[in-house]
């Protein structure tokens, strides 16, 4: 017998190579009124060595293998046939007391595409907090002024600072955008590319 545990209910089944269970209105796990074919109220762990050993984050998922989106044979950890979108978030960072200088700037880490507003003159950023390995940020300068990323500036904590290929400050003009990626090995944000 194999046992399936669903919330507080345990269902024992004989071992078969294939078992088909039909739920016309969807299958809910800790969800009495599913609105999808599979509706999970909580987290989920998928994978032979992950299952029973690793807890997924709250309301999130852990997947051990490759994931295909509109792809039947994924070749990478995430393989997508089609486009991808980063939802935009507008963050007003103000003027920092009229200085237009920002050290250890706190960015909303729920988003990758951030539209920055607030500064009333050319402004400088010496560091951004919340860097984790591989995190990508697209910072759109929605002000009428120049945005400058200061190279490895000591006014910010070491782990929040910026590196660039030419070891110099990087300026993004109004309506321009910069792409940053966080390097855990260097403990720095890398200014990868910019337009404007």
Provide a brief overview of the structure:
The protein is mainly beta. It has strands spanning 2-6, 9-13, 27-29, 38-40, 44-46, 61-63, 67-69, 78-80, 88-92, 101-102, 113-117, 123-125, 136-141, 147-149, 162-163, 170-172, 177-183, 188-195.
How is this fold's topology laid out?
Elements: E1 2-6, E2 9-13, E3 27-29, E4 38-40, E5 44-46, E6 61-63, E7 67-69, E8 78-80, E9 88-92, E10 101-102, E11 113-117, E12 123-125, E13 136-141, E14 147-149, E15 162-163, E16 170-172, E17 177-183, E18 188-195
Please describe what this structure looks like.
The chain has 196 residues and is mainly β. It has no helices and 18 strands. The protein has strands at residues 2-6, 9-13, 27-29, 38-40, 44-46, 61-63, 67-69, 78-80, 88-92, 101-102, 113-117, 123-125, 136-141, 147-149, 162-163, 170-172, 177-183, 188-195. The strands form six sheets. A six-stranded mixed sheet has the order 9-11-13-17-18-15, with no helix packed on it. It has a four-stranded mixed sheet with strand order 10-12-14-16, with no helix packed on it. β1 (2-6) and β2 form a beta hairpin. The radius of gyration is 23 Å and the shape is elongated. The protein starts with a strand and ends with a strand. 17% of the residues are buried.
